[in-house]
Every structure is written in structure tokens, then in C-alpha cells.
Amino acid sequence: MTARIAFARIAQETNALSPIPTTLHDFEASHYLEGDELMTAVTRGREVAGMFRRVELAGFIAAASERRAEVEPVPILSAWAPPCGPLSRDCFEALESRLLDGLRRAHRESPLAGMYLCLHGAMGASGIRDPESRLVRGVRDVLGGAPLIVSHDLHGNLTRARVEAADAIVTYQTNPHRDHARIGQKAGRIAIGAALGELRPTMAWRSLPMILGGGTTIDFLAPMRAVFHRIARAERRGEALAASVLMAHPWNSDPELGWSTVTVTDGDRGAAEHLADELAELCWERRHCAPPPFLGPSEAISAARGAWFARRFGCVTIADVSDVVTAGGPGDSTHLLRALLGEAQGLLTYAALRDPGAVGVLWPRVIGERVSLAIGATLDPTRSSPLPVTGEIIGKYDRHGFGKTVVFAVEHLRIVITEGPALAMRPAFYRDVGLAPWRADIVVVKNFFPFLLYFLPYSRKTLFVRTQGVTDFDAAFTLAFDGPMHPRDRVEDWRSRDRIRRGLAEGSVENGPGMLAHVAGDEPPGGDGDTN
Ligand SMILES: [Zn+2]
């Protein structure tokens, strides 16, 4: 008899500061598959149409194929939505009941021997604390004692409830992420080994009161390179089945937020604890390493103007770090756009903007028509203001994920205005609407670091620009935490909070209103606030 192992995904990265709720429509318009359709996508098609060919679930299928005679993979559902605000309660509960109903049905047909569940790890839902742990607990209730293996993005936040309900948690080991399928395969091998009684997954973890550090946090650059080398060595030498560092997404409303480490061994509790501890120390040592310096828009534009050599042989890439759509920014900020319009005359500039209202106005018009209207700041009107422009419609496209898209030429700007999330991270965002990156002087991206890889063939100079928005690092300082948080506050030691969070010590965490209610613009009370 074969071991039936279920697999499913519910994944979204939530920015708790975004005013735009994530709805069931956002999942269904981006990626939503169940049962046989899901099986076809992960075996013969594209796993996440328009985004990824082979990611975690295809990796899980590869692990199952290695044990074809002994394992039957059982597809439940896969739902993915772009980073945005918290899921509405209705959306979360609909996904939860579809997942658990599907799982119960499969379990009734013939008992399941285990499950692989792919979650982002930083998903929020309106009015529900730690919604992903609720999913893991719900699955645990259906599975009983059968092994449950969970994977996360390395920007996830670990909590005690999740660690207690899962048998093993594994995460990406690359940033920018490029090992999704490998992590799915690793999770699959652990799930299969445990289901067949060959492995006894034993997990240890540590939680750090730290939301920023590690420089650019890129896995192959200092200062994080040594940490990821240590992880790779531990797995290669068999010290652990899996070792992970989670550099948490900071705009998360869970008060027990922070970086964490998690290790999984085959039955060796001591080795798991030792390695999780060592990795936590390595992270804590890197807490003061700041990200690259961010410029103001005017400084960046004059730097781009001065970089004539870079512009001649490629483009200057400007990352709008205050409105990073891949970290849940609305993508409708006009701060940088206004500066580019006023100060970058003569520099051919590609920019992205999400404005469903403006698309509604422009879409019925013909190509070549000139139109005057105000664009931007419609999704989050509190952080920037609409920009009045007159321009010409030079292209119209209907694209999966981005929705209706209008290319609007305003003087030296080519603005790609989208109905859906303006995920301007890859050159294809512009190339697919007729804007070749090598022809531009300036290309704006709404992304922190992955674009560095994607734009390698084009970008000759990169500038990070800060204005004001929900993905400013210090915007996270307004969130409520369970006590002092590095780098907002001075934190001398990570171990006492770690012990409380892991349930090993009584909670003596400061919970006063002063600690919970920092407002934007407050100076960090400690001396450690130099990270941004
Ligand atoms: Zn991530």
C-alpha cells in the first residue's frame, strides 16, 4: 500500500501598514487551483501561471517521484496572491475552510500518511492574530499524529504555536529567492521519510527581538554570506536535515515579531538545539549592519544625470524603496514620479504606477490620443497626492496578474499604469509593453534587492531612493511589539525574550502603552537606531 501524502499552498506576504485589503478575488485572479488542475500544473504546466514555472509544489512532486512505488501525492489546493495589505476576514476564512474541507475529504477517501503545506510565513488577516498558525493547527487536527511539514519564505515570522503544531519547518536559503523548488523537494523528502517511518523529524528554534540588520540581507554577500555558508555546511555534513534563518518581513502586525532560526534533525534534540542557537548568535552579531544608504529623489536624479557613461551602455536603475510592491506597497505613490517629471528632463525614464481609476479613464480611448488627468495616490491617499499630467496613450495591454495596462507618455516619462499590482521587479514588466530597458536612461523598480539580479544585463548603476511610504524601514517602528525591538529600541540581549517566546520563562515582557504606541517620526529611544 502506498503512503498518501497531501500537499497544498496558501501564500501571501502581508504589509500590515497597507490600507488595501487582500480579497479572495486577488487570489483567484492571480493563482488558485484545486485537485486535478493543481496536479496538472505542478507536473506538466506552469505551477503559478504568469509568475513561476516550477516552485515548491513541483519540488514536492519531484521528491514523491523519487519514491514513486511507495508514495501517492494528493493535491488539495494552491492559492497565491501578490504582497498587499492583510487578508479580509472573509478571504482568510474561505481559504481556510477550502483547505480543511479538501483535506478532510481526501482523508475520508483513504487515510493520509502526512502532509506538506507551503505557507509564506508573513501572511496577516484582519482581526486574526497569527493566521498561519491557525491554518497549521487546523491541518494538525485533521491529520492527527501524521507528519506535517511546513515551508516558509525566509521573510516569514516564526511563532511558538506554529512550531508546536508542525513536525518540521524549512525555509528558503537564498535572498533574492531562487531555491523555491529545492526547498519544496527538501520538505517533501522529510515528509516522505517521516511518513514511511524512516525519519523522526526533531525541531528546535530561536526567536530574536530584531527586525532589521544584516546589511542588504543578500545570501551571497557579506555580512549574511557566512551565515548561509554555515547553514549549507550543516546540511552537507549531516548535522541537520534542514537549517534555516528567517530574516522577518518587518511590516508584520504580530507583536512577537523578529528574525528567527529553525533546525530539523533526525531525532537528535541536542544537535538541533545547538545549531539553532549558534545560528541565532550569528544573526544577532549582524544586527548593526545597515542596508545601503538611500538618497532623496533630487539627489538620485542628479546622480543619474551625471552617470552618462552608465546611461550610454545601459540604464540607471532607481529602486523606490518607500513603495516596494513586492513587500506590500500599494504601488500608487507619486513622490518619485513628481520629481522625475520636474527634474529629469531629457532623460528617457520608465516608471510604474498602479491606478485602476486612471486605467478606467484611459482604456476606452484610442492609441495616440492625448489626455489630461490626475494619476496616482488613489489607493493610499494619505501618503502621497495625485499628480496632474498631460500625455499620450502609446500602448494598451491586458496582462495576467497586472490586469489592464496603459503605457502613457508624458514628456520624457513612459509611465506603465496598471489596474493590478505594479510588480516592477523584472525587465519583462517594461519589455512586454514595448519598452526596451537598454534604450532608457532611467528605469524605476518597485523592489528592494531581487531586481539587482534580473537587471544585470541592463543596469550600469543602481540608486535606492527613499520618499515616504509603507515600506520605509522605520515605518515598521509604529507597529506594536511585545517589548523592546532592535533597532527601534536598545536591546542588550536576545535570550530573555527568546525564552519567553518559546514558553520557557514567565512573560515579563514590557507591555506598557509607551512601548506599544510609537508613532511615525518618533526618534528611536535607544542608541541602536542607525540601521536606516
Ligand atoms: Zn521573501
Brief sketch in words of this structure:
With 532 residues, the chain is α/β, with parallel strands linked by helices. The chain contains 17 helices and 17 strands. The chain is globular, with a radius of gyration of 23 Å.
Structure report:
The strands form three sheets. This protein has an eight-stranded mixed sheet. It is built from 17 helices and 17 strands. The chain is 30% helix and 21% strand. The N and C termini lie far apart (57 Å). By secondary structure, the protein is of the alpha/beta class. Bound molecules: zinc ion (ZN). Residues 153-155, 177 line the site of zinc ion.
Nearest-integer average pLDDT = 93
Please state roughly what percent of the residues sit in beta strands, choosing from under 5%, 5-15%, 15-25%, 25-35%, 35-45% or over 45%: 15-25%
Shape: globular
Euclidean distance between termini CA atoms:
57 Å
Count of helix runs: 17
Structural class by SSE content: alpha/beta
